[in-house]
Amino acid sequence: GAPTISIFLKPPGVIPPGGSTTICCICQRSNGNFVLYKGSRRVRTLEQSGSRAEFSISNATYKDRGTYNCHYLEGGTVLARSDELEVSVKELRLPRPDLSVLPGHEVTAGAAVTFRCTSAQPSTACYLYLEGQIRAQLLSRERGDYNLSHVQKGDSGRYSCQCCTINASREWTAVSNALDLVV
């Protein structure tokens, strides 16, 4: 069948001006080329090692904001397109929240896990990131908790969180510490 491409930011989150991140594109096939697009504009052909290509954004500016996607080509034919990845560049004026995981970093499959994102800032909405996933998980408003009732192997990985105020000015925190969950 046709290959699929995943696209994600590493590390994930809203990037401050001057900050850095990497856009990663991964495909199961490894003998073609990756092309990165921003909107409909071709940004560049990515050098790849095996089935993965990385595009670095260093010293980010507001020009780096936007919607990116990756195309995978073999012999000039586009075989796959990734989902769209939204890159946000904003001043991060608030201190970073603290991420913890209960009962702990290492759990057995089927166990229940709670991620807790604690922000010093009142009335914020917090997002939980899993490196490699394009979508963030909005944490429950009251506690800043996110419960996984039956963890699977696929839930393993590196988690972090980030919060923004719920008022009109939408101030963002820096990204929290990262935690590795081992299932």
UniProtKB/TrEMBL annotation:
Key words of the record: Disulfide bond, Immunoglobulin domain, Signal
GO biological process per UniProt: immune response-regulating signaling pathway
Top-level division of the source organism's lineage: Eukaryota
Disulfide bond as UniProt keyword: yes
Ig-like domain residues: 3-88, 97-162
Alphabetical list of PANTHER family matching this protein: MHC CLASS I NK CELL RECEPTOR (PTHR11738), OSTEOCLAST-ASSOCIATED IMMUNOGLOBULIN-LIKE RECEPTOR (PTHR11738:SF186)
Protein name (database record): IGSF1 protein
Lineage: Eukaryota, Metazoa, Chordata, Craniata, Vertebrata
Gene that encodes it: Igsf1
